[in-house]
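fyi for ur records
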Amino acid sequence: MKNLIFSFLLLFVSLVVHSASQNTLAAESCAIKLVCIDEKHTGIQTPDCRIISSNEMLKTGKSECTIGCTEGKCILDNETPTCEDSDGGKKYFRKGKVKHHELGARTEAEDYCYDAHVLVEMGCQKNTNQNIHSTYILSLEDYTCPNGCKDGACVKMKSTDICEDTDGDGILDVNEEKHRTDPTLFDTDDDGFPDGEEIHQGWNPTKQGK
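which gave:
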């Protein structure tokens, strides 16, 4: 499992990998840089001299400048930075949408299936990198679903098999209710520790922290 955190520019570069195809415009040079597509939209110039808009790379989302675009950046507005994830974080079995408003840009992006097995989980996180001048940064994670991926979420598998562990957290489905954990969530309390590990260590899997 990879958890890749990006600045807005790095997010653009990485999303090229997940894009099946992009429309391109002519570019004068091959330097990687942000560009203005029009008054409201930014994009990136790639090493192979293509210009790809932010909307194309977000695949299931959109991004636009609230005031306008100049020199490859959105014009700053006076709005308070916000970032919201509708599914509350890493909820692989629930499709979520991220809404991020900062640095003069308003961005929306949904979780989506890269293929039949891999989920691309979008999220937002407080920025701790002093070299990036923003309050929040978008996160992008590739997660391999145990039962396949469909419609932007991992498939929930109901089974009568007593040895089934749907979410792969180390707790059998038949024991999840006893521990008050969610059989479809790898980490019920979303604190970074799998439910099975928390129980093995004697921690509370339904409350963040040890």
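The chain is about 15% helix and 30% strand. thats all i got for now
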